[in-house]
Protein 1
Amino acid sequence: MKLIVILFFAFLFIESYAQETNHQPSTLYSVNVESAPESCECNLDNLFKNWIQDNITNAGELELLSYDYVGIIEDAADIALYAERMTQLDSPMWGWGGHNSDIVRTKYFKITSYIDRYKAADVTEADKALFLEEINTERASSRLLLTKMIKRGDKVFSITARYKKEQDFVFFVFCNPQSFEMKDIYFGFVTL
């Protein structure tokens, strides 16, 4: 029964994310831009310019170092490859939060990995298997989200970043080469 509830909420998450990204793309890629982006690279340059304390309360904890063009999604096998690669136990996992009011406006994030969550969990030995099953369900939901989000012909970019001056991560983001819409499971959740 618990697994059914988890799958239900995972489905709701995927559906709400898909609806949100279809109607309100991240402004981290476009805020403070005088005209519409002219390329995927322009959007990535904007992300690097907008990654500041004014927009993200703890932006200083993640130093965006560089981005590189990786290639183009050719087929379903490429989509599956990136979906799998981005949901490994040691892959970075983001959590976003924030508060908006007339007085206070904050956006913040936290990066962890599935395996770090598992190691840090305060669960009994008997519950560890159930907790690992929940993590694997989340990973499967994220893979499903990615397979629906990434499309054939999308450009693939890697973003290298250093978290809390301790650990380097590589994040993959995707861009529609016609509309320059950016798609990801990291920065794409933020609207400013």
Protein 2
Amino acid sequence: MMRVLYFLSISFALLAFDVMAQKQKPQTKIPTCTARIESLPKVRGFFLGQSYSEVATRIESLKDVSVNRFAPSTLHLVFYADTDYSGTEFYGVSGVSFSFFSNKVSSLSISYSEFNPIDIKNFIKQVSSNLEVPVASWKIEKQHSAVLTCKDFRINIWDGRNSQNRDYQSHPLMELTDIAAEREELRLAKKKEQDEKERKRLEKLKELEEKRRKEKEQRIFKP
């Protein structure tokens, strides 16, 4: 019995030591991406910071493309699948979405109809090679998506698959975002929300004061 207890105590001690060792094991730090927007090459002729007029002019020259305006600051291009774009910059593209801030492209999203990466790691390598960004700085968020955050821009990619459904396959997607524009847009949106709350508060206060004034006036007898 004593021998069994001895071996059990030794086993628990080794297990505790192994757990502590795993906790103390330093995690691999992801290298910081120091690249800037200016270093990014154009993507299908478009780029972050491109003016609205440049994009609009280019869109007008395209044929067999549906242009949807979901909001004044958003454009979405749908390329018809039965149209032959061979030899053009839009071969293999199923759609392009733009978001604008201060009349400049703040985010650019492209979906691909003729591209099927092996997995998310393969997608990362190809994007890194084509856009000249560090492959080691990517962070795989889920099994089929990853993000790269650099000095003033971010790249999100999705390989078109779903870990919950092996048979699911959609068009792979890449999105580029201007971080500074995104932050400023969020700041202005928050300020607008706060200003609206303050406006409503003052309006309510004014209504309350007017109500009190009328109630006070009604209490005064006027023969």
Protein 3
Amino acid sequence: MRSHMNHRSLHRSLTAAAVLAAAALLVGCAAGPFSGLVGDAAPVADTPVVDAPAAETPAGQAPAGEAPAAESPVDAADGAHTATLVLDGQSFTFSPTTCMSGDEDVLVSGPGVDDGSQEPAFLDIDFVRVDLGWDGEVRIDLGTDQPMSTTERFYSIRVGGDDDHSVGQVAFDDVAELRVDGIVREGGEAELGEGTLEVTCS
């Protein structure tokens, strides 16, 4: 009788142990093989990388990182200032590089050319206000288009002396116009007749 009871107790113990082992196995499977490791994280899904669209550069502006192109200065030879002298049978065209026509003085100078022979010439006008009139000279050096290179051949119109002359000025906005009518002399002596000089400073 005692032997039979011991056999039943042993059978119950083995059955309980088997149940506990099965339960532990089920819990371990549910948790996963790495669930007990510190710092383990679930895998992160790959995120596609999308390049941002390049910013459009406004018209007339340099792209980022590039210096803007320097603007070209206005060249007087391109028509910013103009001057012409017309006399009997001859005319000159000039592109002044200095062009100032004010209430107290007039200073105009620059290279030019004889329209007929294409000989270079240089224009120099220097007037100052005296009382109610002007005093000074229009001088055209012949055979050169450089400043400070006075030649023996030149034309001139004297303003403020005994020669008949007239000086007219018109100014509007940023443009000043000058007109000089007078006797043109060669070498400061021989008369060539009347001439008209017109200047536009802009």
Protein 4
Amino acid sequence: MNREQLLQRAAWLYDRAGLQEAACRCAQDSGDYAHAARLHEQAGRWLPAAQAYERAGNPLASARCYEQAGRPLEAAEQFLAAQQPLNAAWLLAHGAKRYARAERIAREYESKDPDEELVVALILARGRAGRGRRLQAMESLCRVVERLPRLDLSMSRERVVTLALALAAHLGRHDQTALIHAAQVHAHVPGAAEAWEAWAQQTLGDTEGIPRPADSVEAAEPTSPDAEPATDEEVS
């Protein structure tokens, strides 16, 4: 065996013995960055996992780990390398506060379906919110939420929902958050009622009017909990 093979063998043995740090060192020293990245990820060491995935040429996995490590700018760069510009643009706007760049990427993207059109709208709205144009951001969010019930159940819809919830939370629009949850319940999305109830309890301290998981979907009315509308001062 040459040195590289010996190190790979040592990494495998250390891994089987539960000595992950030693396994990671051997894997990296052997040049097997993909193996090292998996070991780092399994141990929750997100930053070295992201860096190892990047060196292994796996930008999508690297982006995921950079995001977990709280490094949105690096994650966005890896999403771009993975040909996922909308994921990159959202992180640039929502996490890295690089609003102009995020908006440029979103505007240049050619949407392939209605779901992606809404993702683009949410990215642009997040940019407006970050630059102080909160009223315009709120109006964009409301238009997205109005269209949400017409979307088919899909992974793309879930991305729209995730971004819309994040924007609503950033803007403090509990009414829109409730409408999003209600749309999910009416669409029979698994776990939607539990998610709505958990949000209401954590954010409002009250779950009155929120459908319980055992309730029928028809019982869930798409109305917001008691939330005051934004004041002029808040949207200026």
